[in-house]
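cache lookup: miss for this entity combination. No prior model stored, computing from scratch. Input as submitted by user K.M.:
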Amino acid sequence: MSSSTIESILQEKRTFPPSPEFSQNAKISSMEAYQQLYDRAAADPESFWEELAETELHWFQKWDTVLDWQPPVAQWFVGGKLNISYNCLDRHLTTWRKNKAALIWEGEPGDSRTLTYAQLHREVCQMANVLKQLGAQKGDRVGIYMPMIPEAAIAMLACARIGAVHSVVFGGFSADALRQRLQDGEVKLVITADGGWRKDNIVHLKDEVDKALVEGVPTVTNVLVVKRTGQDIHMEAGRDVWWHELQPTVSADCPAEPMDSEDLLFILYTSGSTGKPKGVVHTTGGYNLYTHVTTQWTFDLKDTDVYWCTADVGWITGHSYIVYGPLSNGATSLMYEGAPRPSNPGCFWDVVEKYGVTIFYTAPTAIRAFMKAGDQLPKARDLSSLRLLGTVGEPINPEAWMWYHQVIGGERCPIVDTWWQTETGGFMITPLPGATPTKPGSATRPFPGIIAEVVDLDGNPVGVNEGGYLTIKYPWPSMMRTVYGDFDRFRRSYWEHIPPKDGQYFYFAGDGARQDEDGYFWVMGRVDDVISVAGHRLGTMEIESALVSHPAVAEAAVVGKPDELKGEEVVAFVSLEGEYTPSEELAKELKKHVVEEIGAIARPGEIRFSDDLPKTRSGKIMRRLLRNLAAGEEITGDTSTLQDRSVLDKLRGGA
Ligand code: PRX
């Protein structure tokens, strides 16, 4: 164990192979088949991706070079021309899929809509023509600030169709966060809605846009507004226009613009722990291919599937796995506007039952919330249509995994735990459900074509079960190309933590991991979150999982607090299951439980009970803020991505 690695303490030995029935019907149906694909891709990645690009996508013009790799800059399918909106729509119209449901949408108040591929194509063409009328041209940036309604996907596809670069900003962000992103992208047009429904309330999107623009984003000339909620809003004369007024005035024909494979498709902002958000840049060809293939293989997509990813289109998961990946495959993708809420905590299961959802993809934070809400909600619905489950966004605690497997999956559905990032564009480490035996808490093995390795800070591979830095050693088609407007930041943030060695570059985006004796990867969380106790560097996720395995604990977040003797002491913030109340005894019992589960090294010095934990709007626990609280310091750094500010006040009050 060297000081540049991370100690791993999680012991999880359960293994769940796919059922013979699932494997029999799967596209990739055994570990031998996976290994063959993996070996072929590793031996000659360029021909592997080239063959898939030829068979899976439509190109207006073929490429000259598959890969031009000038580290850290990769260009894929150089010289090739395609349009992702064409691949998601037009090519299905000449097949039986023309009248297949492309999008099934369920609004929070219970309204719903289904758009076939033909209908979606029509609306996308109309919006593309409206954008053109408003002066948008190839290369212009368009901001999208929308609720989860079909027009959010329509807006993205319309931009892609005319070659405008979209920058989707999550509808839960404030005016300030929106303005910062619109300014950074020098956005020309904004597409928004009057409002949207979330947790029984109207989110006032247009008001936020007005606030963002009043302070000045001089590049914005027009705002296109979709009517969703119908509440009164201000329409700025000469700037703001209604979609429903313009839609009938334009043609429903808009040929897709042939785009260069490396033309920008979108910018999506991701916030680090320091500095302003980074505009992650994705381009067209490689992104289309990679999201297409990963959707098809990881979800083992069938034409009969009703596929539901619960993410918001404001995140990369929504981009890659609600819109582009599924539609490129001609799948039926379900969009849901709402979130579990007091008036209907079981609404997700209502949607599964109503539409016969077969594939359900969500986040650990949601799974833990479902657990807390109780088994009676899913048990009161018919979930027998489900055949595959997925998770993304954080390491999933084995306890939550088991609950998902038993209560939601009825012990018959494989779970794909997909490790990836905004920056990677698509799944990097994930089970293939008909092939890979899964282990609760492990994202298992890399997708074919992905060369992942756990290394120390000098780039040397660490031993089996030894924690270290998770890196990718070879370019892949959907990797981010740069930080918008700041190439140097791209290089510094991702390519210099582990310095290149003998011409080998290491992509490192911040996670710690270990690989077990079966070559499975166990992601331990962000290395910024690592705690150092008496010289042992411990991943927070493992201690949190030990806490969550206690029946009283609904959710746990663990941070380090400076300690003179040990370097750092473990402080655990814990929210309890409904029937438990905080007490000294319970705190003692939880400490003892961690010692039993992991060992004395991980024993929390302090347990703080809290009803809620501070989370980003995408549901990730903000341990940085908890570190400040644990140390009794002022909160430092950006808090604009915080979901609910009152949580901090409550935690402060209780500290
Ligand atoms: O720390 C990892 C965690 O989420 C980070 C990426 O976050 P973001 O760019 O917001 O993308 C989320 C959707 C892809 C990663 O660096 N993460 C994501 N998925 C997993 C995960 N950690 C463990 N297991 C996962 N399946």
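stored under new cache key. The first helix runs from residue 20 to 24.
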